[in-house]
Fold this sequence. Notes:
By secondary structure, the protein is an alpha/beta fold. Helices cover 37% and strands 13% of the residues.
Amino acid sequence: xxxxxxxxxxxxxxxxxxxxxxxxxxxxxxxxxxxxxxxxxxxxxxxxxxxxxxxxxxxxxxxxxxxxxxxxxxxxxxxxxxxxxxxxxxxxxxxxxxxxxxxxxxxxxxxxxxxxxxxxxxxxxxxxxxxxxxxxxxxxxxxxxxxxxxxxxxxxxxxxxxxxxxxxxxxxxxxxxxxxxxxxxxxxxxxxxxxxxxxxxxxxxxxxxxxxxxxxxxxxxxxxxxxxxxxxxxxxxxxxxxxxxxxxxxxxxxxxxxxxxxxxxxxxxxxxxxxxxxxxxxxxxxxxxxxxxxxxxxxxxxxxxxxxxxxxxxxxxxxxxxxxxxxxxxxxxxxxxxxxxxxxxxxxxxxxxxxxxxx
Length: 359
């Protein structure tokens, strides 16, 4: 099947290339490299997809989702790190945190924003494996522009648009980044659709890891349904402290958050059954559009998860989501097995189009 949906591309997404991350205190090669975006693009072009170039957008929707001080930190961190001389002394060429002001440290005291950039980094970042390098801000902001261009296309009448967003974003909360993510592309897409007049939006996250960022951002929002299918954090998987099934939302958002954690080794049958639970909520709660956080790291052989979803499973997931007949904005999240990455994304996108056509 030849693809007909618009695929949004932004060269800026290639600029984030730190080359390393800090895992358990050890510097090691990063696996979220710029080659991921090119592999996905090329696989979709082979399927007949036409690329649409991203257009620049203002910051207003970004600032409706993320705290302004987080955005300002991300924009200026690389320059501030260099001005502090840290690439020379102690010789750290990446912006990485060393201090995390947790509630266990602070108790009832509200933290003051640190003045030193080396301390300020841990004020905004919740892990050591999400470094900031020279092109990180341009890439993260370019991913947002790609995603907002996809939103524009759907607002203009396209039933489905997909943005090759890289770096990914679904782990970023309102005020903190991490998990190889810097700005929450999927959450910003939800907010953009709401600002354009759409009613309730469903965020369906099929990445192998819990979408903790969107859960935190929309926790008390009844107009946004957040769903996440992911490897059980109780089995020792990121983000470790969130993603349990009893996290259902609070306040006006109570029962508008669904987590479906899966045991390591789960394959197509369990994964698709979890998806069906989420899609039943999409229908029951009357969503008018879907934002799909399209991670493919639940696939067999991906180094970053113990799940065993096949290309056929991803194709069927796309078909079931598309068959709901709702407008869809899809954004790229994880997927780190480079030989299979492009085919897995293509299988999902083809399934989406087939579901829309046949559903």
